Amino acid sequence: MKMAQERKKRIRKGNRPFYLILLVVGLYVLWIFLSQQIKLYELTKQEEEYKNKVKALKEEAARLEEEIKQGNTPEFIEKVAREQLKMVKPNEIIYIDMQKAKYGQEKQ
Question: Mind telling me which residue stretches traverse the membrane in this protein (predicted)?
């Protein structure tokens, strides 16, 4: 019986390097897995941000396309001439509120 116990101890001592190597490999695989999960999470978050940017840019492009289509209408030309070029029709009088102009609140 004593011999059997000594034999088991030798077997256990002989397997220690194997278990140590197995533990190191297991920890390495776990570390790789966790780092890949973190990277995947970051890339997924970045993908969502890019999708939102693409959506916003598509909406802006659609709005600009609509503005281009309206660019040749007389109403749009008049609007641009009045608002951006400060043009007026003949015999038209423009009133400026001096209170707003005094405090810099006049529309440019």
Answer: 16-34
Rounded-to-integer distance, Cα 27 and Cα 71, Å: 65
Stated pTM of the model? 0.49
DSSP 73: S
Q: Which two tokens stand for residue 45?
A: 């978050």
3-state secondary structure of 108: coil
Spatial distance between the Cα atoms of 96 and 108, rounded to a whole number of angstroms:
12
Residue 70 makes CB contacts below 8 A (sequence gap 6+) with: 76
- Whole-number Cα distances in Å, 6 to 1, 3, 16: 9, 5, 16
